[in-house]
Amino acid sequence: MEQNKIRPAEGKLGILCVGLGAVSSTFIAGTLMIRKGMGKPVGSITQMAKIRVGRGNDAQYKHVSEIVSMPSLDDLVFGAWDILPDNAFESAMHAEVLRDRDIYPVKGELEKIVPMKGVYDQDYVKAIDGTWTKDTSLSRWELMEQVREDIRRFKQEQGCSRVVVIWAASTEIYIPRDEEVHDSLDAFETAMKADDRKHIAPSMCYAYAAMSEGAPFIMGAPNTCIDIPAMWQYAEKTGTPIAGKDFKTGQTMMKTVLSAAFRTRMLGVNGWFSTNILGNRDGLVLDVPENFKTKEVSKLGVIDTILKKDEYPDLYGDIFHKVRINYYPPRNDDKEGWDNIDIFGWMGYPMQIKVDFLCKDSILAAPLLLDLALLGDLALRAGRSGMQTWLSFYLKSPMHDDGHEPVHDLFQQYTILKNAIREMGGYEADEEID
Amino acid sequence: MEQNKIRPAEGKLGILCVGLGAVSSTFIAGTLMIRKGMGKPVGSITQMAKIRVGRGNDAQYKHVSEIVSMPSLDDLVFGAWDILPDNAFESAMHAEVLRDRDIYPVKGELEKIVPMKGVYDQDYVKAIDGTWTKDTSLSRWELMEQVREDIRRFKQEQGCSRVVVIWAASTEIYIPRDEEVHDSLDAFETAMKADDRKHIAPSMCYAYAAMSEGAPFIMGAPNTCIDIPAMWQYAEKTGTPIAGKDFKTGQTMMKTVLSAAFRTRMLGVNGWFSTNILGNRDGLVLDVPENFKTKEVSKLGVIDTILKKDEYPDLYGDIFHKVRINYYPPRNDDKEGWDNIDIFGWMGYPMQIKVDFLCKDSILAAPLLLDLALLGDLALRAGRSGMQTWLSFYLKSPMHDDGHEPVHDLFQQYTILKNAIREMGGYEADEEID
Amino acid sequence: MEQNKIRPAEGKLGILCVGLGAVSSTFIAGTLMIRKGMGKPVGSITQMAKIRVGRGNDAQYKHVSEIVSMPSLDDLVFGAWDILPDNAFESAMHAEVLRDRDIYPVKGELEKIVPMKGVYDQDYVKAIDGTWTKDTSLSRWELMEQVREDIRRFKQEQGCSRVVVIWAASTEIYIPRDEEVHDSLDAFETAMKADDRKHIAPSMCYAYAAMSEGAPFIMGAPNTCIDIPAMWQYAEKTGTPIAGKDFKTGQTMMKTVLSAAFRTRMLGVNGWFSTNILGNRDGLVLDVPENFKTKEVSKLGVIDTILKKDEYPDLYGDIFHKVRINYYPPRNDDKEGWDNIDIFGWMGYPMQIKVDFLCKDSILAAPLLLDLALLGDLALRAGRSGMQTWLSFYLKSPMHDDGHEPVHDLFQQYTILKNAIREMGGYEADEEID
Amino acid sequence: MEQNKIRPAEGKLGILCVGLGAVSSTFIAGTLMIRKGMGKPVGSITQMAKIRVGRGNDAQYKHVSEIVSMPSLDDLVFGAWDILPDNAFESAMHAEVLRDRDIYPVKGELEKIVPMKGVYDQDYVKAIDGTWTKDTSLSRWELMEQVREDIRRFKQEQGCSRVVVIWAASTEIYIPRDEEVHDSLDAFETAMKADDRKHIAPSMCYAYAAMSEGAPFIMGAPNTCIDIPAMWQYAEKTGTPIAGKDFKTGQTMMKTVLSAAFRTRMLGVNGWFSTNILGNRDGLVLDVPENFKTKEVSKLGVIDTILKKDEYPDLYGDIFHKVRINYYPPRNDDKEGWDNIDIFGWMGYPMQIKVDFLCKDSILAAPLLLDLALLGDLALRAGRSGMQTWLSFYLKSPMHDDGHEPVHDLFQQYTILKNAIREMGGYEADEEID
Predict the structure, then answer these.
(1) Per the UniProt record, which residue ranges are transmembrane (chains A, B, C, D) (predicted)?
(2) Which residues in chain C are closer than 8 Å to B329, comparing Cβ atoms?
(3) Could you count the other beta carbons within 10 Å of the beta carbon of residue D181?
(4) Which residue among C268, C351, C434 places its CB closest to the CB of D360?
(5) Which pLDDT score, from 0 to 100, does residue B281 have?
């Protein structure tokens, strides 16, 4: 057993959310309720799942916290930044995700979570007017320095031994990777100092600041923020874990399951049309084409990898795949994803599958925030710096370096996740994933 | 490499279908077209999939026939029994599954496939009047003897070195396992000779006859036919493989995928309502409550096993699961399965998924017949007698003996299938499946 | 203007609901809230619609209360019978249809509405155990006398000038019309006195009692209660209006709209499959085949009449129509109706329409109760006794005598409804409805 | 009886289709088959419906041809223009709407229908490369003259006594009404002569030419072509009927039915999301934003008029209505429209309706072409020149002059249609439509 290599989860763990909207407030209010025994952390692997360790006759099913040292929910402390001034209680009430009766019992605790002012550049989120922002005339480097200062202050005031930073804010406009600026740490830092607003997104200030303070950073939106070599280098240099991007919640999660099934059964696919309607702030932001572009790139890649189109050109060589997201205010946080899938079977005969997923965006995302924060911290304690590809299970567009293909199949991702936990717990990993 | 233990697939392989309706005629016509290069065997693992053998740097992806000796499609010969006299061409035209242009090029070959007279007992399929039957006054034992004679004659006339018998006929009424009759081979044979029509279904005559002739027997309907100890004993005694039951085609296949996804993601389930409309002979038969009962038992078990309700009572302890099948003639073979699934996430909040699967029953089933026939024959050549649990991938209600739980998760079933093929091919199997 | 023939709506109007479950409590709580200005009577024609009176240049759009004398919502007083003892507040809370915030402001008023003990015969609603019932050993006639006494007491205690009785309780088992018992008033009264429990349903005791007290009676369930000549005769004899049967709420309402559209466009129909899932008391009762039978008869008739199958045999002569209702507790009052409709167009080519209606049974029914009670009272004041076919707009299976066909087309029904109101208001009716 | 005012339908009627794609070829092939007795004109009012004439005891139900003089299908002759050279047989085969067996019996007749070269300007249909076009360097006026010449030649060669021109080609880009060019006939003719390509769409050349030759013109796409005062004036001047625009086939037809039902029942609406997937040429053209704009304007207006939002602001004052069309090649002509409708009932409680319409665009459109051509000709024979608002029943965006509101409610439109036919047949019209 080599678990002793992992630093134990002692002291308080601070979870700093970038964005204190529907997702973060549902996550925080829920966690507070759960630790009072007034709810269950449904959807959280770290809290509910049992993982097999050992094999054959030695096989045992254990909770994650029985395999590796994990903080209890009582050890968590919450903070946030936002570009609007609502505290966590106001935000939760405004989001209308949780019912009043699931918010009021922790009202006092929520009201104390007042966001720190956010880094704001309207060019990156055209649909929202920030009213609670850091000085927009400052350079990206200066803003980053302010975020570092925020982290240090939070850590000290709350008495945290460790901090994790997790992005749960809007999708920024699409920033294509620019080799000159994004491929080396030096060039990147130079650009920040030169306030190169075209190549340095606000989210990058948070990511760089978090790593500078030794805090793991998780990118929950499809922003390319940490999906560039400069950030990978900085993560290695600072010894901090990073993970991204884009929480895999509803429609894409289903996609990574269904396409795995089609390939397993050798059923062909010639069309996949996905449309979404949602009415929360996320929907509003994604209604702007430049922001949708970021999401679209994140959502489209999924199928081809799982289906192995190059191996099976007769089955998957010609798929018409289209993804649409529509801002639709009547629904608020109740997102609906409607998929039509055109498959074909024996002798090429066509069949259709329609999936209508009436989900709640924040309800699906909240347990992912909890798991990613806790597992990001675990990676830090295990000395695993840089890109955490084993967390791809939670992510729509898993990070991978230039030489590798990401794994999208939900079940293969789960095996990878379990293997990492097994290894950190001193157990043997399963050898193969397909 | 130990593949030499497997007898090579030399000579012709006869595939005898019990029932020459939509499923069988689609299977046969398709196979004939495919071997002319006029179609693809979409949905067939044995023809299209590539399976990893070896590990790490030694990993290779190979077709099944590259791993173990398999007959080519040109080696196949087809025959059938039915209780109606239509030949395979007439049956395919009447089924309206394949288009005329996918039947006519093999018209001549199909017309030569005239069914042998079937074993018929109207008490077992109330909705169909058999007009092409063996003498209904004969005892079950005598009927079985006639089926044996049919098999021998077919084998000789067609010059087959081996034969497989596969049930692709109607669902019979539900015959609960009777310990006195079904649990020992002796008692079972005695009952056949005594013409105990209440406990011996017509399908059992085929199964017993097949094994007597050394032919693997596959049960594609939910009939409990070979799901009893007497048959297991006879399979061991005769050294023949058997597999069943109920082809896993549309809705249940999706169920075994979606429920695996929910459990993987720790999302709770509190309701699952499945309704089907279909208008072919299968639908007509299942409209009779006693026949539906057989199907219902087969369809309902799936979820609980996959979700591990005992391990996760908070998530899966209280699921309301209902399955309905409706005879609906306007659709003919175009089956539609509509599922509504009530799931819950973080803090117990409810969400809904609706899946509408507009499928074609026979198109989904045809490649399963092909695979099961070829893999049943492979098992025979590999000396694997008795219950073939590794074929559960294809079956809605996989056979298992009294001491074991069946595996329903499609992806775990696939791993088991691949492992069996790896082993027969002289490769190492993957150790674990979850 | 001949409106003076109608007695003005002076004094209080008592509305007595048979059954104080989800539907009645939603109706009563809603009405109380609405008259406080805390909600809108959405779905109610009498409260919201404007009807054209006059023609051409004289056309005017007026609210119903501007055309005929109508009571204001402030004039209404509520009472109920039930076989369970919950008061209206408890019932509304238990139903979980309205949110707490839409019940609490009228909690005091609701608590005062305590049900009178109900007439109960378990043979008629097998799924419910009545615990708050009149003496079950009494004869039907004696029970009816007790109900009359209840009505008189309520009227006096509440100071009502008029009373309406409306059935909003369970569907009873199917009682086919028996010519000997149901076709003459004499035979019917004799059977009541002889306590003929097989032919006299509990609901008939309420209907007979209401008429005896001069109160209009509305049948909201599919019970054949007042759909028999004996009741028509008694209604004429007592000068009271009666109307039924079965509130037309969700799926059937849609059906009467869609089939009208198909016929208008001369699109053919060859199949209509309707399935429902619902989890309230109504669903529980309908899960019993004898009770479902009553509902099925009510639901199936709709299409043929609208489509005029005899006039258009090429289009509608061969429709496979199937209706299923499934008890599905996870949904409670949130009823879901899924319809698949197979239509055909030019040259007979098939197309499909699927309608998924996620509705709330009680939300759809509540305004129908309000309208039917008020319009039943209007009929009384207008001296219109007997069967009120002009109220068919609200009813799934409109009453009609032996010589007439019912009108099911929602838009034609609306014209008929408006015409009756126009006439009562002294305006000319439109002449034709198709 | 004043029917004698209508010129009888003597001699041959030429139907000239602009565009010989899926819609036109399905219409023509179908009509030829139907007149051979090999199919039914399902969806056609003129061929199948019976209309009531007379009232009360005098009421009779008659076919249209029994009320007014109508040509028989045998009197019809077909011609077409297109910008691709395929003849009607090739086009029908390529469209894959009708099965081979419904095309081959009229192959010879179809092959003789070779399109005349079309008026083409790629700026108006960016997605299609015309290869069979009139000289693109000619002015709009010269092109119009060529079309006139085409009509005269066709009429003479085919020996037609009358001709109707019907647009069944692509949606052009959106041309907003320009007061200076489009509001007077003089200005319009001047612009044509000056070859003002920005304001004069190719479709306008056909419309002007048709009227010049005394041929009724029908606009089946959403092009604003004849929806401008200049065209109304020219229609009056030439005494020719015109009608438009945009065939009301699938989703919009359903919308005009469902919204009528909601208003009738006083159910509120707060959101309506409509998405379409289709893969034929129409879909390809509409994938270009400028062309979609034309369609969107046509599709969005429908709801508000029917719901009378100004009369019922509480119910319909705030509807979020969005329409999306997606080019999706896997489906070809099999269009699918998915609607999600958010309605609300009693006390404002929300409910949802989802409608999935798997339709065939050309199958729905074909009978509309037949009816509009025959009824356009009827209008001509009845001396009804100018805008034919009574044909709105068939049109998504019915033409109306500046002082009037269009009627969208399908049932009201049908009453208007029937009234016009009644009047032309010498019967009294019904007075009111709501």
Answers:
(1) 13-34
(2) 271, 320
(3) 20
(4) C351
(5) 76
Does the pLDDT at position C48 exceed 70?
Answer: yes
Separation in Å, CA of D343 to nearest CA in chain A: 10
Q: Which CATH class is domain A251-358?
A: alpha beta
Q: Tell me how close the Cα of D291 comes to any Cα of chain A, in angstroms.
A: 19
Residue D56: its chain C contacts at CB < 8 A?
Answer: 431
Instruction: Give the pLDDT band of residue B3 (cuts 50, 70, 90).
Output: very low
The shortest C-alpha distance from C380 to chain D (Å) reads 24
Question: What was the pLDDT predicted at A128?
Answer: 85
> Within chain B, which residue ranges are assigned CATH 3.40.50.720?
3-247+363-424
Q: CATH 3.40.50.720 region(s) of chain A?
A: 3-247+362-424
Show Cβ contacts of residue D3 under 8 Å, excluding neighbours closer than 6 positions: D67, D68, D69, D424, D425, D426
Structure tokens at A295: 């999401």
Q: How much is the pLDDT for A125? A: 87
Give the per-residue pLDDT at D345.
96
Q: Which of A263, A265, A339 to mutate to test the interface with B (most CBs of B within 10 A)?
A: A265
Q: Is C414 helix (H, G, I), strand (E, B) or coil?
A: helix
Q: What is the pLDDT of residue D1?
A: 41
Judged on CB neighbours under 10 Å (0-12, 13-18, 19+), D129 is exposed
The DSSP-derived string for A234-276 is HHHHHT-EEEES-B--SHHHHHHHHHHHHHHTT-EEEEEEEEE
pLDDT at A2: 47
Kindly provide the ipTM of the predicted complex, given to two decimals. Answer: 0.93
Chain D residues with CB-CB distance to A under 8 A?
Answer: 270-271, 273, 275, 277, 320, 322, 324, 326, 328-331, 336, 338, 340, 342, 354, 356
pTM of the model: 0.92
CB D350 within 8 A of CB D302: no
Task: Name the architecture of domain B3-247+363-424.
Answer: 3-Layer(aba) Sandwich (3.40)
**Å between C276 CA and nearest CA of chain B:** 10
Partner-chain contact B324 C326, CB within 8 Å: yes
Tell me if A326 and D270 make a contact (CB, 8 A cut-off).
Answer: no
What is residue C313's predicted lDDT score, i.e. its pLDDT?
94
Contacts with C84 (C-beta within 8 Å, 6 or more apart), sequence order: C115, C130, C131, C132
Q: State what percent of residues in chain A have pLDDT above 70.
A: 98
| Residue C45: exposure state from Cβ atoms within 10 A (0-12, 13-18, ≥19) | buried
- Picking from C277, C319, C341, C349 by the largest number of B CB atoms within 10 A of its own CB, the best residue to mutate is C277
Using DSSP, state whether D51 is helix, strand or coil.
strand
What's the pLDDT tens digit per position in A323-372?
A: 988 889 888 888 899 999 999 999 999 999 999 999 999 999 999 999 99
Distance separating alpha carbons of residues C406 and C251, to the nearest angstrom: 19
CATH code for the domain defined by B251-360? 3.30.360.10
**Residues A46/A65, Cβ–Cβ less than 8 Å:** yes
* Mutation site, D272, D274, D275, D333, interface A, largest A CB count within 10 A: D275
Confidence grade of residue B291 (pLDDT, cut at 50, 70, 90): confident
For residue A271, give the chain D residue with the closest CA.
Answer: D330
Report how far residue C398's alpha carbon sits from residue C389's, in angstroms, rounded to the nearest whole number: 7
Distance from the Cα of B368 to chain A's closest Cα (Å) equals 10
pLDDT beyond 70 at B430: yes
Q: Residue type for D40, please? A: K
CB–CB of C42 and D346 under 8 A? yes
Touching partners of A (3+ C-beta pairs < 8 Å): B, D
Contacts of B273 in chain C (CB under 8 A): 277, 326, 328
**pLDDT confidence tier of residue A402, bands split at 50, 70 and 90:** confident
Largest CA distance in chain D: 67
